[in-house]
Amino acid sequence: VSRSTPPTTNQQSRLRYILIWFQERNRVTMSLTHGAVRTLATADQADPSYQPVLQVIHVKAVGGGGASERFRAIFSDGQNFVQGMLATQLNPLVHSGEIQENSVIAVKEFMKNVVQGRTVIIVLKLEVITANPGQRFGDPKDIEKENIQQSSGGAAPAAQPMYGNRPTPVESTTSGGMYNQSTQPTNTYGAGSKGGSSGANPYGATGRFGGSGSAPIVRSSNPASGDNYTPISQLNIYQNRWTIKGRVTSKSAIRTWSNAKGDGSLFSIDILDASATDVRATFFKEAVDKFFNTLEVDKVYTFTGGRLKTANIQYNTCKSGFEITFDQNAEIHLDNDTGEIQQQTFEFVQIAQLEQVEPGKYVDILAVVKSVGEVGSIVSKKSGQELKKCELVLVDDSAVEVTLTVWGEEATKAQALYGNSPIVGFKRSRVSDFGGRSLSANSAVVNPRLPETERVRAWWQSVGSNSANPTRSLSSAGGKGGRLPAFDERKTVSSIKNEHMGQNTDKPDWVSFKGTFNFIKKDKDGGAWYPACANAGEPCKNRFKVTQTADGNWYCDKCQGTYPNCVRRFIFSATITDDTSTTWVSIFNEQAEVLLGGVTADDVYKNTHENHDQDAYDAFFSKATFTDWVFNCKVRQEFMNDEARVKTQIQSLHPMDYVQESRNLLQAIAQF
């Protein structure tokens, strides 16, 4: 364009476009954080508040597709670039094109790792600023080569020790910083104070998974022995080789499976290390044969050669955000127990506080096993297999009791383990609202070596074991017999309506009261029972309803079997009254047999229906009418023909002990 000739309209538009392009280029270039790559690659400690803006100058898929797919990336600040990886949760951003070559991002959370001597920045969380500015900014140089040139004598940085090598250990700082070359060791693995850092979580969560998301990987060591271990709290899926040292705090039984893919077996253990973090490890097939008999609870081992994956928090209650799979090639060695690793870590909750804990949560309980119930069994709804169970009554120095259920092999050994009223620490027991409040055991330590154990023992010996000092129960066990609800726990029949019980559709309500049967609805076609499958084994267990065929046999849909006979099980309704109100209740087989003095439905059928003796039939039930009981009932809302109804079901019932009832009444009167 000539100075003397004014530009045309078209030329002005082109000049304006070029000017805007240069301004935008300069703006984006200036927005990259100056010196960010050097800061990330050389900093001794990651600052969670440091969130640099970088450019992704290369991105490439590695590994297979699906769950194993990962993306390698190169990050640039316009001056230097560094190798990196994108965390798997960022994969959708690559698939959608939001992250591509030359994208500008703000790094929100990251980790630093060293792989075969090279620094790798793992980006865990980011914000896309510009998906595609159309060019690479600056002329970035490899930060690794610059570091080599700047190091004394041109020597390359020392490579990170790999599997099987044990070089001079590198000390880690008390703050859990990145690899550093300090010659003054501070807090080493296993030698930290009680208030020291237990390591941070790479995913930025708090609570179960730990602290800040920008924490780097730390490999700690024992200077005296030259051993080099990775704390469990610092494990992450981007590490190829690691060795952990930990105590086996629990060990499951061997479980087997069989499906279209074949047969197999597995067992799992929980491992606790000196960082006070535990992790679940599972062994499959050949590894079961090799290691099951080798590993013992409360022994200390070193573990190498496992594969990490994200923990399934629905079934895994360990603190680590990962879980480990070991095969037959794993290296596991018994190690010296120097006492640096605790026997178990607990966060105890008193039993009295369980009323405020939501069902489904996990708690640690330290309590005396007051009594051990009989070993029973249930049929799993998922697998159809029979599960052994045993109920323990626990009490602690809050003078409150709760029922805890142990399962499987531990249930069969419950009397031997807990029959002499030991003090037991139950780890991560699941809270349930069945019967008020109850617990399901996960793992247990008998007489744990803790100061709290002595406190509970002193209370039990001086106060708790004395029957003159009553305790309050949070549980009322269902089924046959059950456990008698305490006098001060009882309510009235009218409380079912007045307190709007059963209106919560998510969970039932529980209520205990004293009442009298004033009507039993026994007259229905065929009798007050239903015909159940004669198969006492799996999967029916004499529970599932059968239908009679034309030839007089009984057919079961559950087991697909045909039998000449059936087993009858009671099912009927009744009304219960007290001085405040009357309510309808449902009664099932176990509770009905208690009500009728141990008579079974088959007994009633044989003595009445075969002879069509209505008077004899009525006599069985008339004996139970106008009898007094203490009930524990479940109240819940059910829908029938699109109509909501509140249904009360008897879970347990106990005949009235008039002598004890009189004493309770006199004691209650004396308190006014």
Structure, explained:
With 672 residues, the protein is an alpha+beta fold. The chain contains 13 helices and 32 strands. The strands form six sheets. Strands 9, 10, 11, 12, 13, 14, 15 and 16 form an eight-stranded mixed β-sheet that branches. Strands 24, 25, 29, 30, 31 and 32 form a six-stranded antiparallel β-sheet that branches. Strand 20 and strand 21 (438-440) form a beta hairpin.
- Biggest sheet, in brief? 8 strands, mixed
Residues in β-strands, percent: 25-35%
Terminal CA distance: 106 Å
- Computed Rg: 34 Å
Give unreliable regions as ranges: 152-226, 477-481
Global geometry: elongated
Count the E strands: 32
Mean pLDDT: 78
Output the structural class: alpha+beta
Number of helical runs? 13
- Summarize the amount of helix as a percent range: 10-25%
Question: How do you describe this structure in short?
Answer:
The protein has 672 residues and is of the alpha+beta class. The chain is 17% helix and 35% strand.
Features:
672 residues; alpha+beta; eight-stranded mixed sheet; six-stranded antiparallel sheet; 13 helices; 17% helix; 35% strand; elongated
SSE arrangement:
Elements (H helix, E strand, L loop, with lengths): L8 H23 L4 H7 L10 E10 L7 E7 L3 E7 L4 H5 L7 E13 L2 E13 L10 E2 H8 L69 E3 L4 E3 L13 E9 L3 E5 L2 E11 L5 E7 L1 H6 L8 E5 L2 E4 L11 E5 L4 E4 L27 E18 L6 E10 L4 E8 H5 L1 H5 L4 E10 L5 E3 L2 E4 L4 H14 L7 E2 L21 H4 L10 E13 L7 E4 L13 E3 L5 E3 L5 E2 L3 E11 L4 E7 H7 L5 H9 L4 H9 L5 E13 L2 E13 L2 H13 L2
Parallel strand pairs: 3-5, 3-6, 12-15, 19-21, 19-23
Antiparallel strand pairs: 1-2, 1-4, 2-3, 4-5, 7-8, 9-11, 9-13, 10-11, 11-12, 13-16, 14-15, 17-18, 17-20, 18-19, 20-21, 20-22, 24-29, 24-31, 25-29, 26-27, 27-28, 29-30, 31-32
Helix pairs in contact: 11-12
